[in-house]
Amino acid sequence: MAELPDMRFLTVAEVAELMRVSKMTVYRLVHAGELPAVRFGRSYRVPESAVAEAVQRPVSDVG
User: What is the DSSP string of 8-40?
Assistant: First the structure.
């Protein structure tokens, strides 16, 4: 049997809490392709490593 990598997945609520944004913002990031996610049934799970990368990514100024 193939070994699965030791990955942790977070719920949208957990990601929102870590990033200090709303759940809707997390959904927008997922749908825009800026935050990778896997869909399990009706819910999304985001790899913990993707959240760490997104938090460390520099933010550009708008306007």
Answer: -EEEHHHHHHHHTS-HHHHHHHHHHTSS--EEE
Q: What is the dihedral of CA 63, 33, 19, 28, to 10 degrees?
A: 70
Per residue in 22-52, pLDDT (tens digit) is: 999 999 999 999 999 999 999 999 999 999 9
How far apart, in Å, are the Cα atoms of 33 and each of 1, 38, 42, 46, 63? 32, 12, 18, 12, 22
pTM of the predicted model as reported, rounded to 2 decimal places: 0.80
Grouping H, G, I as helix, E, B as strand and the rest as coil, residue 47 is: strand
